[in-house]
TrEMBL record:
Main location: membrane
Entries under InterPro entries matching the protein: ADTRP_AIG1 (IPR006838)
First and last residue of the signal peptide: none
Cellular compartments per GO CC: endomembrane system; membrane
Membrane topology: Multi-pass membrane protein
Alphabetized UniProt keyword annotations: Membrane, Transmembrane, Transmembrane helix
Location in the cell: Endomembrane system
Annotated TM spans: 16-36, 48-73, 85-105, 125-143, 150-168, 188-213
The name this protein goes by in its record: FAR-17a/AIG1-like protein
Source organism per UniProt: Cylindrodendrum hubeiense
Domain of life, source organism: Eukaryota
Keyword Transmembrane: yes
Length: 234
C-alpha cells in the first residue's frame, strides 16, 4: 500500500516498522505480566489495576501496536488506519501521563502511591515512560500526519477524562478508597478542575506532537494537512 508523502519511513512494512511494533508490544505485555505477579490490594479490588489511568493508557498503547503488527504483516490498509486512529488519542495521553507522573513524583511520590507500594526502576520506566517514547517514535517516523482539529482532540479527551472520573468513583463505591492518594485530598469541585485541566493537557500535548512531527517531516506541507480534517491516506 502507498504511504503518505510526509511519512518519514515506510510503514506498514516487515522491516523497521515491524521491529518497533514488536518491541512495543513486548514491553507493554511484560508490564501486564508484571501486574499479575505484583501482590497489592488492587489485585483483588473492584476494577483491578484498570483503576489507574496509567493502565488504561497502557491498554490503548498495546491495542495500537498490536494493530500496527497486523498492518506490517498483512499490509491491509484497514489495520494501519485503525492503528493511527487509536494512536491519535493514545499518544498525547501517554505523553501527559509521563509528564504528570514524573512531575508529581518529583514533588511528592506519596500523592501517587502509598508508601508501602514501590516499583523497581525497570517497571517504573516501563509503565510511565516507555509507552510515550514508543508511540511518539511511531508517530514521527512511521505515521502520516494527524489532521484531527484541536476541538476534536479536546472533545475526545474531555469525554475520556469524565468517563475515567465516573469509573474512579464507581470503583471507590465498591472499594472505599481511590487508586491515587491525591484524589483523597481533593473536593468534588477540585476534581472537576483536575479532570478538565487534564483534558486540556491532552489537547496541548496533541498540538505539541503535531508541531514536532512538522519540524521533522516538513513544516509547510504538514501545516497544509491541518486544513484537511480526517483525510485518509491515499
Amino acid at each position: 500500500m502507498a504511504h503518505h508523502p510526509l511519512q518519514r519511513l515506510t510503514s506498514p512494512s516487515r522491516s523497521l516498522s515491524l521491529l518497533l511494533h514488536v518491541l512495543g508490544v513486548a514491553s507493554f505485555s511484560y508490564n501486564f505480566h508484571f501486574l499479575t505477579t505484583w501482590e497489592t490490594p488492587f489485585s483483588v479490588a473492584y476494577g483491578w489495576h484498570f483503576q489507574f489511568l496509567t493502565i488504561i493508557g497502557l491498554t490503548s498503547s498495546l491495542v495500537a501496536f498490536a494493530l500496527g503488527i497486523l498492518a506490517d504483516l498483512t499490509s491491509v490498509p484497514a489495520f494501519f488506519q485503525a492503528k493511527n486512529a487509536v494512536a491519535v488519542l493514545a499518544t498525547p495521553l501517554e505523553v501527559v501521563i509521563s509528564i504528570l507522573y514524573w512531575g508529581i513524583r518529583f514533588i511528592d511520590a506519596s500523592l501517587l502511591m502509598p508508601d508501602d507500594f514501590s516499583l523497581d526502576l525497570l517497571s517504573d520506566v516501563g509503565f510511565h515512560l516507555a509507552p510515550a517514547v514508543f508511540l511518539t517514535l511511531d508517530l514521527i517516523l512511521f505515521s502520516p500526519p494527524w489532521t484531527i482539529p484541536a476541538y476534536g482532540t479536546m472533545t475526545l479527551s474531555t469525554v475520556l477524562a469524565f468517563a475515567y472520573w465516573y469509573w474512579v468513583e464507581l470503583c471507590f463505591s465498591h472499594n472505599g478508597w481511590y487508586p491515587y492518594p491525591l484524589f483523597e485530598l481533593l473536593s468534588t469541585v477540585q476534581r472537576v478542575f483536575l479532570f478538565t485541566f487534564s483534558a486540556g493537557l491532552v489537547t496541548v500535548s496533541s498540538a505539541g506532537l503535531k508541531w514536532v512531527y512538522a519540524q521533522v517531516n516538513g513544516y509547510e506541507k504538514a501545516k497544509k494537512e491541518a486544513h484537511k480534517p480526517l483525510k485518509k491516506v491515499e
